[in-house]
Amino acid sequence: MDDLLLSARELSKKYGKNSSYALEKFNGDFSAGELVAVIGSNGAGKSTLFDILGGLIKPTKGVLNTFVDNTQIGWCPQCEVIDWSLTVRQNISLGFELRTGSFRRSDQIEQVASLLGLAGYLDRTAETLSGGELRRTQIARAIIGNPKLMILDEPTTGLDPSAIDTVFKYLKSQTMAGATALVSTHETSKFANYCTRVIAIDRGRVIKDIEAAKFMEYAPQSNDLWDAFKACVEDRA
Ligand code: ADP
Which residue of 79, 119, 179, 182 is surrounded by the most CB atoms within 10 Å? Predict the structure, then answer.
């Protein structure tokens, strides 16, 4: 496949010896330019998948191959990874340093802060931020330096509609320029206008991995990925 960045083969995860699979036999190849929506109900296994892809947890079985340098992977987990006593500027900077091992340039911090409406918050400590401001700081940590691969688990939770549009527009422009992003989001109506591919997960299993336009054919009257997801699940019942 051209410009392959990530390849997952038969990824499975069990959290306990006697528990069922949270994720079972996940296969997927991800290439440059893709903007992928990962959708499914609560508990479907999306965060498990993102945590494996982001390197937080190891799969019980399966193989993950990355064909892009770790410094080029921006990861925004669902849980808050933030240093509360540091300022927004320091938090964003730390995200870059942890990923790349090198110091950020202040213009890069200012650029990403301005994109996410954080320019006025750079010298505030994280503990003083609202939920939406914190989430934007986490997104900034993940996307500073324009990584080639972005793995974003519910990045838009707690964001207002304008900030959501900004994030989706940014992801669209980056992926059109050759980056790749995997995103889980509850903003299924908005994101339908942006994503190029949909991976639908139900109870740990991929039930559809398909071009976004084709996925929407499951709900021809709707412009919401969630309606197509529900129709897709019903279709299998
Ligand atoms: P989603 O992100 O789609 O809501 P998750 O990946 O968080 O789903 O969860 C998938 C399943 O794995 C759920 O049944 C959840 O309860 C279980 N699970 C997730 N994390 C853990 C954990 N750390 N320990 C035990 N079970 C977990």
Answer: 182
Assigned domain for 73 exists:
no
**How is 77-137 classified by DSSP, letter by letter?**
-SS----TTSBHHHHHHHHHHHHHSSPPPHHHHHHHHHHTT-GGGTTSBGGG--HHHHHHH
Distance 167 CA to ligand 1 centre (A): 26
Pocket test for ligand 1, best of 18, 21, 47, 154 (most atoms within 8 A of CB): 47
Give the pTM: 0.95
Reported as a single tens digit per residue, the pLDDT across 46-98 is: 999 999 998 889 999 999 999 999 889 999 998 878 889 999 999 999 988 88
**What CATH code is carried by the domain that includes residue 195?**
3.40.50.300
Q: Which H or E element spans position 164? A: helix 161-176
Domain count, the chain: 2
Residue of minimum CA distance from atom 21 in ligand 1: 15
**What average pLDDT does the segment 169-198 reach?**
96
Mutate to test the pocket of ligand 1, among 48, 60, 199, 229 (most ligand atoms within 8 A of CB): 48
Enclosing domain of residue 95: 82-147
Tell me the percentage of the chain whose pLDDT exceeds 90. Answer: 85
Tell me if 13 CB under 6 Å of ligand 1.
no
- Quick one: pLDDT at residue 96? 85
Same domain? For 46 and 110 the reply is: no
